[in-house]
Design goal:
Elements (H helix, E strand, L loop, with lengths): L17 H22 L1 E2 L1 H4 L2 H10 L6 E4 L6 H9 L34 H14 L6 E6 L6 H11 L5 E7 L6 H15 L1 H14 L3 H18 L3 H5 L3 E7 L3 H12 L5 E6 L7 H5 L6 E2 L22 H15 L3 E5 L9 H6 L4 E3 L4 H13 L3 E7 H4 L3 H9 L6 E5 L16 H6 L5 E3 L4 H13 L4 E4 L23 E4 L8 E6 L3 H11 L2 E4 L2 E3 L3 H10 L2 E9 L4 H12 L4 E7 L9 H7 L4 H13 L1
Parallel strand pairs: 2-3, 3-4, 4-6, 5-6, 8-9, 8-10, 10-11, 11-13, 12-13, 15-16, 15-18, 18-19
Antiparallel strand pairs: 1-7, 12-17, 14-16
Length: 621
Amino acid sequence: MSLLDSIHGPVDLKSLTRGQLKELAVELREFIIQSVSRTGGHLASNLGVIELTIALHHVFDTPDERIVWDVGHQTYAHKVLTGRRSRMHTLRQTDGLSGFTKREESPYDAFIAGHSSTSISAALGMAEARKLAGDARRVIAVIGDGAMTAGMAFEALNNAGASDANLLVILNDNEMSISPNVGALNAYLTKLLSGRFYNNLRSTGERLLSSLPPIHELARRAEEHIKGMVTPGTLFEEFGFNYLGPIDGHDLDALIPSLANIRQLKGPQFLHIVTQKGHGYPQAEADPCLYHGVGKFKIEVGVEAKTCSLPGARPSYTEIFGQWLLDMAASDERLVAITPAMCEGSGLTEFARRFRKRYFDVGIAEQHALTFAAGLACEGRKPVVAIYSTFLQRAYDQLIHDIALQDLPVMLAIDRAGLVGADGPTHAGAFDLSFLRCIPNMLIATPSNEDECRRLLTTAYRHDGPSAVRYPRGCGPGVTLSADLDTLEIGKGMVRRACGRQDDRIAFLAFGAPLNAALMAAENLDATLADMRFVKPLDRDLVKSLAQDHVLLVTLEENVVMGGAGSAVAECLAELGISVKLLQLGLPDRFVEHGDPATLLARCGLDAAGIQAAARKALSE
């Protein structure tokens, strides 16, 4: 039996020798490669934290001592070691394991980890709560260097450094390498600096010298200078942390004693480890970006590089946006593109190559991205912010205060609108229509196919004010694209199918992607189908006309029903004083879990069969 077969929970790690733990790391890495090759998921980042995960669960008494992971991209080993190995084949699938940590999934999952840069704040809150309860057990936050680009992480560090709570922040730095000599030196120094003797000596010295302020200050500066010569920790020391590192995050002989020593220390501690994304799988080591999120693949072959759609294949909405951006940038030198660390995911790779001076990746800093865009707009530029719907939520105040209030021409290209399948509720774009619609000066467009997407992107870009075009993940229905940069009339929808019935006339008012499922339902029911195109401004004339000629209006949107596009139609009807039966279909008032996109839409009643059944039921009531 392999070592991994004997691990049913973290307690089983406690009795293993250092050599056995190293053997376990090899087995665990191989298991994750095998598992992800069958299910898809995040690979490179998970391979980089195998040893760290083993060391944490070996040294600390989890779940009593909490581990808060920043983003679930690094939690697969954690799931395996905490009793979920037998369910890893269900990862990210309908009714299976979540791709992220999830409190209701396991007592070892201390906090949800879908959005970046939240771990230090959450861990500090837990540590302070424990301090109030007289509980000295430590709370650990594991955060990647990418997540440290967010202001929220530094807000938390600033707060934590002024606290005496037992918080350990582990910075997983996977963008730099350690040469053997430096690595060995820093591993030794960290063991030394984290040891009881050094820290007891320092505490005693501080007490003795505190009555002699000039000498105490000289000693403090001398220590800071000595540590600063060999470690880059001055910044974190200034925040109030005891900085330790950097050490090799793949070296259990360095990790385990350092963590064991840190566990004995009081107050905020900061451990800096250096790891390699994709460690142990050569293909992922060579191209960690490609292996960040992968589909199913053959281990011996690896993942095929992501390229634009082949001739004859349907392009994704992300690719359509990427090509539109290139075309518009070529025709308008004022255009600048901004992304909060989602270049590849948002379709900006080629733009970044061809228009490097007009491309800005601001890191995981959505708030900054929008206010930065506002500043560019103030000086005559035309910013396009490429952002996922779920991440736009993080910059809501900046959208209202810095962009909309000043009526600035900033365009939001909102990807991943609606359900996103395997990534689940942390990444679903379920709320953007609701939270955008209430903001004055906003233009909101919802394309229903590829060509509509291209035209509405052009329309929004040329609008002299804030605008948003939201489109789903994946491909559209396969409509031929226009090569021109044509616009559509703002606030005007169109009827795509006219009703042939004389009685029980139904009209579907579709906003965006649901139009394609509604078309089948409309044909089966011989109903009218309108492509509304715009949520704001709403085509009031079209709504009025449809209400006068039909007995039932059915609104369709891949957004929560509350406050969404259907609500806009209801408000319009009320203002016009029109009484007509109205059925609003959209996402339910709950978080929709991860799984197969078609299955999830069917469960929400947004497939053709569900739409047809709901319309029949409403008509009969």
